């Protein structure tokens, strides 16, 4: 991913990307659209994305609820 510094859209839904992968994705400052639906991730992993300026974030998960994201 570091070889794609201008990447603006990333769809990784239904893959095996974990919290550690989200840490790397959180470093892609050019991202504006991200789909992380149905990944084996936790709220801790999603917190790695806080520094991104996203226009669109798609996320569906049975492990993460709104309260966990706001903590």
Write the layout of secondary structure elements.
Layout: E1 9-11, H1 19-25, E2 33-35, H2 43-46, E3 56-58, H3 66-70
Parallel strand pairs: 1-2, 2-3
Strand content: 5-15%
Strands side by side in the biggest sheet:
1-2-3
Helix content: 10-25%
Overall mean pLDDT = 90
Number of helices: 3
What does this structure look like?
- The chain is of the alpha/beta class and 71 residues long.
- Helices cover 23% and strands 13% of the residues.
- Strands 1-2-3 form a three-stranded parallel β-sheet, with no helix packed on it.
- The longest helix is centred in the first third of the chain and has 7 residues, at 19-25.
- The radius of gyration is 11 Å and the shape is globular.
- The termini are far apart.
